[in-house]
Design a protein that fits this description.
binds iron/sulfur cluster; six-stranded mixed beta sheet; alpha/beta; 4 helices; globular; 170 residues
Length: 170
């Protein structure tokens, strides 16, 4: 009983903290879905047409329109990283196909600032190219690594078997 109460308490605190972070980001919309206790639970969004599934950190409602929010609380940058834009674009595509009130944009929240990313034709094209490249990689005989970052390898579940890990000290 005590453990259950402690877990509920922790969930409420985490929910409140995450909402405070979101509010400090400048995103003013009402939170309509998230993995915290402050809203209805998020559900995975699916696109059979594009063969992708995803779940944004938050969905917010602004002036009756629904936008996804992706939090990267440990990232600091004055411009959005391309891979984060592509991730957010995937949520935009999923919302476009499943939510009639999709706003046409989403938010990327970094530790130091927030970016509104419009789901433009250019962003959509980048996403569709990425999906096509990933699909091609799935059936390719060999896919060389595209980085030399030991930290990524150190966190990768394939580090013991991929044979190309660039881990410091290895
Ligand atoms: S361990 Fe291998 S698969 Fe994993 S990130 Fe490093 S190079 Fe890529």
């Amino acid at each position: 009983m005590m453990i259950a109460l402690a877990l509920v308490g922790a969930a409420i605190v985490l929910g409140v903290v995450s909402v405070m972070l979101l509010r400090r980001s400048g995103v003013r919309g009402r939170i309509v879905a998230s993995d915290s206790v402050v809203s209805r639970p998020s559900r995975a969004l699916r696109s059979p047409r594009h063969g992708i599934v995803g779940k944004p950190d938050y969905l917010v409602e602004e002036r009756g329109r629904i936008a996804p929010v992706e939090l990267k609380p440990s990232r600091e940058s004055n411009s959005p990283w391309l891979r984060d834009v592509v991730q957010l674009a995937a949520y935009c595509l999923l919302l476009e196909e499943t939510e009639p009130r999709f706003a046409g944009y989403g938010y990327l929240r970094y530790a130091n600032r927030t970016f509104r990313i419009d789901f433009t034709d250019r962003v959509r094209g980048e996403l569709l190219r990425t999906i096509a490249n990933m699909r091609a990689d799935l059936t390719a005989a060999d896919v060389p690594p595209n980085h030399h970052d030991p930290r990524r390898c150190a966190r990768c579940m394939l580090v013991r078997v991929c044979g190309r890990a660039v881990v410091s000290g290895s």
